[in-house]
Amino acid sequence: MDDHTDQTRKPRADAVRNRERVLEAAKLVFNAGGPEASLEAVAKRAGVGIGTLYRHFPTREALFEAVYRREVEQLSELAEQLKNAKDPIEALRRWLHSGVEFVATKKGMMAALALAVQSGSELHAFSFERLTKAIGSLLNRAVAAGEMRADISPEDLLRAFFGMCYVHDQPGWQATALRLLDVFVAGLRVPPPGKAKARSSKTTKPAAKRKP
Amino acid sequence: MDDHTDQTRKPRADAVRNRERVLEAAKLVFNAGGPEASLEAVAKRAGVGIGTLYRHFPTREALFEAVYRREVEQLSELAEQLKNAKDPIEALRRWLHSGVEFVATKKGMMAALALAVQSGSELHAFSFERLTKAIGSLLNRAVAAGEMRADISPEDLLRAFFGMCYVHDQPGWQATALRLLDVFVAGLRVPPPGKAKARSSKTTKPAAKRKP
DNA sequence: TGAAGATACGGAGGCTGCCTCCGCTTAACA
DNA sequence: TGTTAAGCGGAGGCAGCCTCCGTATCTTCA
């Protein structure tokens, strides 16, 4: 909608410019000061009034969304590329590792994602779905190849990933996260058939619900 | 200390009473409203002035600490008990599962822990060390029994645990967390000797630094 | 090119929460 | 019961959130 041939006025040049400035400033400020950073600081840095900021982005989350939407897309595209790799499990592992690096270079990113996972914001709907799809494609391939257990859903994996990155402001978190993810991936491998200790199914849920 | 025979005045009864009231109120308010809840709301609920609250607990974190110290202790004692279980890996798994349940029943708890992990607060020093020790004792036993890989430190494991609980306000997070922890524990098992695919050591760090 | 009208700007101002400070109150002690 | 240290409470200063509206600027059309 909004698409009807009504002559829609060309958007004002200053509005476009200001929107861009705010976005740029927000990226810097959020990356430096975390997701709690003052929006007035963002406005000041952008050289616009606070009112202008709020008109373009009526909520803090709206601003987050605008800033990090592109980043999420990049991460998701990476999965697309990795689908061509030979070893499916290795591909998954690589993606997770890339994710860590991604988070590392964009300090505000993790905060944004965290916020998105927790609250039911707009950004959630978008990035959660997008990343789930990305992970799902890698996951399915590995499962289909018979190398990976089938009772873990893409959502599960995504949450595990978030969780591992959760400690992202401890010193050395990056090495930790990589190590933890490796353990996790190891746990995802199907146990070698003859060797598996049957484990009580008390806690191993029948199967993760999977998007049909 | 504080123990010297100097005649120390008995603490005033009203002070003791108020401190208790604030703690009680804080528990309620934090559990309901999360860790961001207004301290003035806490004071109001406790029926004391805001000044009184701040005298007893000069920072938000100090209040958190006082509220959740006991909880952390309980969790850590559970590890002590589990040390007598037969299967060391199973014991570890049980502890982790109990942790999930623990977090589930005390809504404010996770927030407190999360806050503790992230910021370098007092509560961090206390609970992180305490829980690390708890996990460490379970971990070491499993490693010593030769059932578990030795390149994961207690700190790593603790962080993984936090991470898995991180999604604790999504619906159904509990089942998810349990599933993820099971995968993780599976990944911790030493690979059956003859079967292990040698994995490039590119990312498998030499060994986690371990408290000497 | 210039006038008209739509659109956007910006910051004052109201609100809430954080935290400090200090005059008053009250409990402990002799 | 008087003295005095300990404790109380809330006023007040500060900062950030968000709204509202008078003013400025841009687009459009003649």
Provide structural commentary.
The structure is a homodimer of 212-residue chains. Chain A has helices spanning 13-33, 39-46, 50-56, 60-82, 88-105, 107-118, 122-144, 154-165, 173-188. Chain A is an all-alpha fold. Chain A folds into two domains: 12-58, Arc Repressor Mutant, subunit A (Orthogonal Bundle); 60-188, Tetracycline Repressor, domain 2 (Orthogonal Bundle), CATH 1.10.357.10. In chain A, helix 4 (60-82) runs parallel beside helix 7 and helix 5 (88-105) packs antiparallel against helix 7. Chain A is 66% helix and 0% strand. Residues 1-5 and 194-212 of chain A have low confidence and may be disordered. The first copy, chain A, is built from nine helices and no strands. Chain A binds chain B through residues 93, 97, 114, 117-118, 149, 151-152, 155-156, 159-160, 162-167, 169-170, 175-176, 178-180, 182-188, 191-192, 195, 203-205, 208, and chain B through 97, 114, 117-118, 149, 151-152, 155-156, 159-160, 162-167, 169-170, 175-176, 178-180, 182-188, 191-192, 195, 203-205, 208. Chain B binds a DNA duplex (30 and 30 nucleotides) through helix 1, helix 2 and helix 3.
Mean pLDDT over the residues of chain A: 82
Distance between the termini of chain A: 29 Å
Radius of gyration of chain A: 21 Å
Largest interface: A-B, 39 and 38 residues
**CATH class (first level) name of the largest domain in chain A:** Mainly Alpha
> Sheet with the most strands of chain A?
none
| Class from helix and strand fractions of chain A | mainly alpha
Task: Tell me the fraction of residues in β-strands of chain A, as a range.
Answer: under 5%
Summed up, the domain count of chain A is: 2
